[in-house]
Write a structure and sequence with these properties.
By secondary structure, the chain is α+β, with helices and mostly antiparallel strands. The protein is built from one helix and four strands. It is globular, with a radius of gyration of 11 Å. It starts with a strand and ends with a helix. 11% of the residues are buried.
């Protein structure tokens, strides 16, 4: 599941803990400490908060 910025509050894609603000770039979750990536897939208009594995999938889509 990918979490976006739209109408949903910014949450960590791992532990689903609410974030105080929407990160503009890669950051660590203050709750679980895992890296949160900010990515946009080629077929999407909005950036999303994703896990490391999801970020790799999105990068593969851009490379294709």
């Amino acid at each position: 599941m990918i979490f976006g910025f739209g109408k949903v509050a910014a949450r960590c894609p791992y532990c689903r803990e609410a974030l105080k603000k929407v990160p503009a770039r890669k950051t660590k979750c203050p709750s679980c400490g895992k890296p949160i990536f900010v990515k946009r897939a080629p077929d999407e208009s909005e950036k999303r908060l994703v896990t490391e594995a999801q970020a790799a999938e999105i990068e593969a889509l851009w490379d294709a």
